[in-house]
Specification:
The protein has 249 residues and is an alpha+beta fold. The protein contains 6 helices and 13 strands. The strands form 5 sheets. The protein has a 3-stranded antiparallel β-sheet, with no helix packed on it. It is elongated. The relative contact order is 0.16. The structure holds flavin-adenine dinucleotide. The site of flavin-adenine dinucleotide has 19 residues, from strand 7 and strand 11.
């Protein structure tokens, strides 16, 4: 945290300011949990972005400019294709069809290692997410709560535009099973009660694991493959890749 404050200062960005418990209660009276042992900072320049909307618009713009999107078995790649000189020339899909290109970009997130030996560089991580369904009155009530980001606990978001949900990713939890295991469920609830005590006992509307791939330095790996001509990589979102979208696109 200290390091990122220092970086923001050096880059002349908004620097997060320390806030006391008293200031928190005064400014956001809906935060009723104890927040024991927290040392909290507030950054007014932080915000929430509609990732689904951004990706949909990007896909539309790409199609308007000639891109063709394929999904289902035709879009599910099972194998990269190489010519006899080792140049990557395309991909084979689950329906048996093949797609050829001068440049192939592997951008399969946490699943990238199913298509290419990444020499252990990427680690697939499942991030647990829980949604609570809020009533219309609660949507209104919690509309103005701040995004709460706790590096060990997780992130907590206000209800989203379409709806009625509060989202709670808990970071860095590996788990191969579907659903959310009980200890993680308990931890998510404990964390929720730290901030919004009255919501902590509510049933989850849904829980799931969302996968992303971590690089050792927690930065994207976007580059040509060093040994395989024709193949480029765009992997390793490292749990903070979405915010790079405007830079990458
Ligand atoms: C719960 C959660 C919260 C997050 N919050 C934030 C945040 O607040 N800010 C932020 O900046 N980032 C956040 N992230 C991280 C961000 O979402 C990821 O870093 C980013 O999506 C990674 O982009 P990507 O293109 O590498 O992989 P992905 O977005 O995972 O995209 C990979 C795509 O490849 C497809 N695919 C996989 N295998 C195949 C195959 N064989 N054939 C065809 N297609 C395939 C997948 O279906 C997927 O659509 C969060 C991630 C999670 C899980």
């Amino acid at each position: 945290m200290r390091q990122s404050t220092e970086t923001a200062r050096k880059l002349d960005l908004v620097v997060a300011q320390p806030v006391t418990d008293e200031e928190i209660r005064k400014r956001w009276p809906l935060i009723t949990g104890k927040m024991d042992g927290w040392s909290t900072v507030w950054n007014h320049s932080a915000g929430w972005v509609n990732a689904r909307g951004a990706l949909t618009q990007l896909a539309q713009a790409a199609q308007e400019n000639g891109a063709r999107c394929v999904d289902g078995p035709q879009g599910h790649v099972v194998q990269l294709l190489y010519d006899e000189d080792g140049k990557c020339i395309g991909a084979k899909s689950a329906d048996g069809s093949a797609h050829f290109a001068d440049i192939v970009i592997l951008a399969a997130g946490a699943a990238a290692a199913t298509l290419l030996d990444l020499k252990g560089q990427l680690v697939a991580k499942g991030h647990t997410v829980g949604h609570i369904k809020c009533t219309p009155a609660e949507v209104k009530k919690y509309q103005e709560i701040p995004i709460v980001a706790h590096l060990e606990g997780g992130l907590l978001f206000p209800p989203q535009e379409d709806g009625r949900t509060v989202s709670l990713p808990r970071y860095r939890s590996d788990n191969k099973d579907d659903g959310v295991p009980k200890p993680i469920d308990d931890k998510m609830r404990r964390w929720l009660s730290e901030c919004f005590h009255e919501l902590a006992g509510r049933e989850w509307f849904e829980t799931r694991l969302c996968w992303d791939a971590d690089n050792p330095d927690l930065h994207f790996l976007i580059d040509k493959h060093p040994n395989q001509p024709g193949l480029h990589l765009a992997v390793g979102g490292s749990a903070h890749g979405f915010k790079m979208m405007p830079v990458i696109a």
